[in-house]
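Researcher: I'm preparing a figure for a lab meeting and need a structural model of a single chain. I don't have an experimental structure, so a prediction will have to do for now. The sequence is pasted below. Please return the structure as tokens so I can convert it later.
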Amino acid sequence: MRSSELGEFLRSRRARVDVAQVGLPPTARRRVPGLRREEVAALAGLSADYYARLEQGRQLTASHEVLDALARVFSLDEAEHSHLRRLSARRSGPPDEVARGVGPGMRGLLDELGRVPAILLGRYTEVLAANRIARLVFADFPGMPARDRVVVRWLLCDESARALHDDWEGIVEEMIGMLRLAVGRDPEDLRARRLVAELSATSPLFRRVWADHRVEATPRSTKRMFHPVAGELNFYVEHLASQGAGGQNLFTFVPRPGTGTAEAVDELLARENVPAS
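Model: Understood. Here is the structure written out token by token.
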């Protein structure tokens, strides 16, 4: 599967290159968008046969120099460049261990955040933990069946999630991009393959974004929401990767000053008879 992922990613990025921007003359004989294989090879300083083997899965790995050259030709951003390297990396041992448990330090941090919604996600956007105010602002993830506690699935399949987010489609695309980046680290993981297969079968939006091979390393820095009780909410979004807990990511949502969000959060907490800290 890794070689197939690598080839598909290369083809997707080859197709989106504007030939004029790389100094090649347009021609009416082009039957597909973007660059031809031989053009990619020439621009990257590779043989056409070698590049063809990469796309076709007959060449399973490539040097950093080759990958850097391809990243330059395709104008990859940092997340896409890292993703390309992971797809080409030769596996030298068992898959990375995915930490699903939540340590006492992390759980204590979530509780101490008080007025700041905080959600801890696993590698494939599964919700591992959420503090009280996050459950009031977003959804009662701990009360959901385990299979539904996956943010990508929740965003795509729950109508309340769609109504909650201002830029719902943009957020969905970002989360799919984060999922794609995570899957690239271990494309043989059966859980990931089942999730991708399920969402591909049920969501046209997921199929479109997944086929585009979008990768996303960091989420947006702000979020605007429309809560059914609290009304409009505006947050700064902070993303922290948990050190020593493979694949865990902590997302916090800090109320933006001057938007009334802090006061609305206090009101939500008061409704639940939970004192704001």
